[in-house]
Amino acid sequence: MEWRTRWHITIRWDRADNSPAGVTVVEHAVDSPAELRHLVQAARADPHVVAFPYRRVCELVGDEPDECHNGHGYAGGSATTAVRGWWPCRCGGHLVLRCRVCADVRVEPGVGADCDPR
To answer: What tens digit of pLDDT does each residue of 77-90 get?
Structure first.
């Protein structure tokens, strides 16, 4: 698992018939500042666009581990499902999974040198 930065932009038109999509609101999620810049420039150039707020979003992506470091599976009932927790951190945070069988702890994404889990 790892953190990915994306930008969400909502483009609003004054009337649906002035929008290329035929609606007054269109939402986009883009993966790069260049893609965001392209959408913002297009929105600024359209005289019928009344607003285009955007925000940066960090998303945790990737497959969640399905077993502890000792090979005990997390699937099944309450006796084997991992105890889930969350550590806030300047990187965005860490998913903490504790095995119910052996008490092994997994931290995803791994704690890096620039992390400060609290």
So the answer is: 877 888 999 988 88
